[in-house]
Design brief:
2 strands, mainly alpha, 6% strand, 203 residues, two-stranded antiparallel ribbon, 8 helices
């Protein structure tokens, strides 16, 4: 249920290569990908498979595996697998990246900011794919914006005294640009303006 139905056979192959876990995946979040609603686990607890278990996987199957491990409970594992997929324009990859924008590991935000820096270039498949995903998932993106502000306010205000200097803010601005372009109108900004001191409405 975490991938579009045409990928079901590939997903089964990937699951067979993954190690089992005694813990069940955490409750999923729902997103709309090209008209199909996916249920993506918030966290997975499966250990990473050994390298030899991946040798027979196709490029698409490897991408599916990397997507799943961006949901791992260890942030270092999430970052390692994110780096393998963050430049993909596959619509079913994008929710796995955007979900990480609204999480708390700033090193992951830096990876995303660097990889998506070209989103402001018009006419690319990546720009169109991200823009369409946000247009199709306005509530999900609204929650992501609020989470970015909340985590900055709770954990990173001493390192980034101004929210516009925080990597998550830069990523949100890129995503709002592509959403505005796709929607044909300015996308709502749910983050504080520069210099705002009172963040009670965001946390």
């Amino acid at each position: 249920m975490a991938f579009p139905s045409p990928l079901a056979d590939d997903v089964r192959v990937v699951l067979a290569a993954m190690k089992t876990s005694r813990l069940k995946p955490a409750e999923p979040f729902s997103v709309n990908v090209q008209g199909q609603f996916l249920a993506i686990p918030t966290r997975l607890y499966n250990d990473e498979p050994p390298a030899d278990a991946l040798e027979s996987l196709s490029p698409r199957q490897l991408t599916i595996l990397h997507c799943l491990y961006t949901r791992h409970h260890d942030g270092r594992v999430r970052q390692r697998h994110l780096e393998c997929i963050v430049g993909s324009a596959e619509p079913w990859v994008i929710p796995y990246v955007v979900q990480l924008v609204g999480e708390y590991v700033v090193e992951i935000l830096v990876v995303i900011r660097k990889a998506l820096g070209d989103l402001d270039m018009p006419g690319t498949a990546l720009r169109a794919a991200y823009g369409q995903f946000i247009v199709d998932n306005p509530s999900f993106f609204a929650r992501t914006q609020r989470r970015v502000v909340s985590y900055w306010n709770c954990y990173y205000r001493f390192n980034y005294t101004s929210f516009p200097g925080y990597p998550g803010c830069t990523v949100l601005e890129l995503l709002r640009v592509v959403a505005s372009d796709r929607a044909g109108h300015p996308w709502p900004r749910l983050t504080p303006p520069a210099g705002r001191a009172n963040l009670s409405g965001y946390c």
